[in-house]
Amino acid sequence: MESLRRTVAIVEDDASMRRSVLRLLNAHGFLTEEYSSAESFLARDGVSNVGCLVLDVDLVGMSGIELQRRLKESGSGLPVIFITALEDDALKAMAMRAGCIAYLRKPFAAALLINAINDAFKP
Q: What InterPro entries does this protein's entry cite (predicted)?
């Protein structure tokens, strides 16, 4: 059951970035699910065991901020770690107010992401 709690969903529309994050997390013992859009994440199988979400802010279609808002409105307590290439203090402040675990600017150090995910899985 421990491994189910350590499943991380990666929602990133840049395929090479998504693969890089996936490889990093797998190398650190996390199970992963990958999605190329917020819409595909929302359409996933309901039996998903995701315990943490690594979410790009600037996605094609629905934004990461909008996805986080929808999850919260539906009662989800899924921890969110935002990743972004955007340098926007207002956007960062909005994400932090919405309760994300971390807001990491690309390129970020691998240790920052791993530490944030470990924090998200703490009871």
A: Bact_response_regulator, CheY-like_superfamily, Sig_transdc_resp-reg_receiver
Identify the bridge partners of residue 104 per DSSP, sorted by sequence position.
Answer: 83
Q: Coil, strand or helix: which one is 52?
A: strand
d(CA 81, CA 101): 5
> Are 32 and 26 a contacting pair, CB within 8 Å?
yes
Domains of the chain, start order? 2-120 (3.40.50.2300)
Q: Does the global pTM surpass 0.90? A: yes
Q: What distance in Å separates the CA atoms of residue 72 and residue 60, rounded to the nearest whole number?
A: 21
Per-residue model confidence as pLDDT tens digits over 66-80? 999 999 999 988 999
Maximum distance among all alpha carbons in the chain? 39
The length of the chain, given as a count of residues:
123
To which H or E segment does residue 82 belong?
A: strand 80-84
Q: Fill in the DSSP letter of residue 55.
A: E
Distances (CA, A) of 27 to 14, 23, 76: 20, 6, 28
